[in-house]
Amino acid sequence: MEIIIQPTYAKLVAVSAEIVRDALLKKPNLVLGLATGSTPIGLYEALIRMHKTDGLDFSEVTTFNLDEYVGIPPNHPYSYHTFMETHFFSAINIPSENCHIPQSTAVAHEEFCERYEATIVAAGGIDIQILGIGKDGHIGFNEPSSSLGSRTRIKTLTQSTLEANAPHFGDSVDAVPKMAITMGVGTIMDAKQCLLLASGESKAAAIAHAVEGPITAEVPASVLQMHPRTIVVIDEAAALQLKRVDYYKQVYANKQKLLSSG
Ligand code: F6R
């Protein structure tokens, strides 16, 4: 795991946007795994700026979103379809047929989930999977106790996740859908690279457990310790409970020095 600690959310966004941009410049038909939630919004805004000012081209990009609530239509104001359209897709030049988001209204859920996995494989697999992390260590909607080998399926959301998402549903926990379709932990682990973003002190415990704790289904993000190419980009507040902050900063500074000299 590479841990990059930045002083602020703005800097975290800048570093992660550069990682995605560099990958896209190297591979114009990049396959991106996308997350919703508040954390990646700044990243999407930065990529939109790069598209508008530098002509960063998304015309050959394919995307797969991690998850979607079950039981609300795609055009619902709080669906992840609407979120992605509002915060990213409508502002870049990505063809809509290249954007994949789990279908919350699919009748045959199991068949849909199998097809979603097959579509990812047919696209050549995910090159970079963008991830946020829940306070309880979830990635996607893989709540604590999710199998570390799980694939795309329906999950019931925990009370903590319902409460965290209530602000998007008019501050009403009751209004938050109780289930979601989510890529599994195993699906996420198949991505060639994972880019986990976290900001703020409320994520500090989850980050410490995920990065320095034991690998356990109780903290699904901890399995990323087994992933050969995971980059964790966090701000100082989210790094507050990490033990090896100095070492992570030293590693990053050395890498920057090497890159600028070479
Ligand atoms: C969203 C997702 C979730 C979020 C996580 C953090 O697609 O998969 O795992 O990344 O709940 O959400 P925020 O960024 O709102 O704190």
Portion of residues in beta strands equals 15-25%
Q: What compounds are bound to the protein? A: fructose -6-phosphate
The total domain count is 1
Low-confidence segments, ≥5 residues, pLDDT <50? none
CATH architecture: 3-Layer(aba) Sandwich
Number of strands: 10
Q: What is the CATH T-level topology?
A: Rossmann fold
Helix/strand-derived category reads: alpha/beta
- Overall, the morphology is globular
Number of helices: 8
- What is the CATH first-level class name? Alpha Beta
Q: What's the gyration radius in Å? A: 18 Å
Overall pLDDT score: 96
For the sheet with most strands, the description reads:
7 strands, parallel
What does this structure look like?
This protein has a 7-stranded parallel β-sheet with strand order 1-10-9-6-2-3-5. It has a 3-stranded antiparallel β-sheet with strand order 4-8-7. α1 crosses α2. It has a single domain, classed as Rossmann fold. The mean pLDDT is 96. β9, α7 and β10 form a beta-alpha-beta unit. The chain contains 8 helices and 10 strands. The longest helix is centred in the N-terminal third of the chain and has 18 residues. The chain has 262 residues and is an alpha/beta fold. It starts with a strand and ends with a helix. The site of fructose -6-phosphate (F6R) has 13 residues, from loops.
